[in-house]
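re: that complex we talked abt at group meeting.

here r the seqs, copy pasted straight from the sheet so there may be weird spacing, ignore it
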Amino acid sequence: MEIFSNLGLGFSISLSLNNLWYCFIGCMIGTFIGVLPGLGITVTIALLMPLTFKLDPTTAIIMLAGIYYGAQYGGSTTSILVNIPGEASSVVTCLDGYQMARQGRAGPALGISAFGSFIAGTIATFGLAFLAPPLAQFALKFGPAEYFGMMCLGLIAAAFLGQGSMLKSIMMVFLGLILGTIGRDLVTSFPRFTFGINELEDGLGLVPVLIGLFGVGEILNNLEVPQKGREIYHEPIRGLLPSWREWKASIGPILRGSVMGFFLGIIPGGGAGISSYASYAVEKKLSKTPDQFGKGAIQGVAGPESANNAGSQGAFVPLLTLGIPANSVMALFVGALMIHGIQPGPLIMTKAPQMFWGVITSMYVGNVMLLLLNLPLIGMWVQLLRVPYRIMFPSILLICLIGTYSMNNSLFELFLMGIFGVVGYLFKRLDLEMAPMILAFVLGPFMEDSLKQALISSHGSLGIFIRRPISATFIGIIFFFILLQTIPRVRRYKAAVPKEEL
Amino acid sequence: MGDRDRIIAIFFLTISILVGVKASQFPFGNMKRLGPGFFPLMLAILLGVLSLILLVRSLRRGERSAIEWPSRWSGLVFVSLAIFVFSLLLKPFGFLLTTVIFTSVAFKFADPGRWFAPMSAAFIATFVSYFVFRLGLGIPFPAGILGY
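got the structure back, here u go
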């Protein structure tokens, strides 16, 4: 079978000493920042991007990917032991994980998170290996009209999956698209909204924008919330290996969470965060004892922790097959690939199979490493949590400044980071969701370009988007989403979901 | 005026008007060959329409969800000022000096009650970052007056 020779090729790449080493570094950094609350995945990857420029592109992506899924492992540790989510995607793990720790079951909670994540990682790796090639084949048929339709659909999906009102999320999408038009027009190189600033001619830099919104914005928000004294779990953690009974209770949630997380990860705006919410909601619904949830039910840890790991790997599907980032972390991967001269999209698989399969198989390798890293070293990670915020926030701020500067050695980008830090703070205050905006900001230039090309090929007729079957399907689904939103029951349900569960 | 949605609607409406006015000065092109003005102008118009919908909705509903503004602004003001001052000083003062100033002020701000702990943290942070980023990774920071 072709898939086995492909996987063989992949493992021959990912098991090379150099790649193993960088995969290990990625997983270590990922676990580290996953455990640390206050330093998110997006910010870390943005900060580390410049370091990967000198690496071979495959190695660079292997390492960055390791950070992404590694952080899902680390995030659960903080949720369980301190009741503070280490990452946004382990918010729900706090609910039952912390309760388990308080009942003296921190060991099994940590253990099932790690094993669940490992199983999910395995399933997601195979999902990626089986799903990506046919999808990439399919995507080769796409012309500009299809790409435009698909990106519109992706943005609507991202807005729909958001937790706030859909109207405001769509407004954020438009704001992101507008931010994406800053800089010289691709065709005529007419300068738009540059106000005579040279640095703006290539557009707003993604790295300063993301570090500002998520890094600095987060610090600004944290400084206002009085830091509650952290109750760190003191007793030695025993019994990391879950018992037979705990396995029996968890295996269903783990498998369901893996599959659900993987598919939710594929959808733009999805990824690790929403997967964990969805898994928690489903497990609570399916449980015979839903009242146990929130009081230390192991299912409430096993499901979401598997789902977020699978979701983080599922997010690679659209990147590797369509060249479309599903979330802000994947947007950075687009940037990382393009710096190496690789256009993300369906051609990666045929033009750079060693990279495609190397990255996919490295995820399996990385999951094995993480399992080995996390369980025995858990005591070391717990020590990290004892670092007080008064040490952490100036250090994070300094790292943000240095990281942003080192991207392009540009002082302007430091200003930009500061401005977007304040913007990120205000958006959070106003409860506006930033994920749809970031996605739109990244996709904007591609969308405008494909719109122009589609109209050139149709001699100016907008009908092209409806006449071509694939793009017509996308447009149809968009209208379906919008119609769905006008049904009051759906709107009420969506408004109730996050609040009910938290 | 305190209503969250109303403030958001007015904020977005302002942006859409500013962007729309500016974009209408760009060459518009035609449907066969879209100019640089088409896409931003369309975006501005659509954003404006959506903001109006939100505005009308929030007016009809009356005031409901006020924004909780923070009780203390010091953190916000301090951090944003620190970033801008850091960027201004980096070139004339050089990396080492700027970082020492920045970290001393920042660690002291974070731990206002004491002197020894924040100052030692500042020096450690400065030297670690100098060794890691300047010497280890060779990032070309401005040298400034001290030459470091």
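couple things i noticed - The helical segments of chain B are 4-23, 38-61, 74-93, 95-110, 116-136. Chain B touches chain A through 65 residues (CB under 8 Å).
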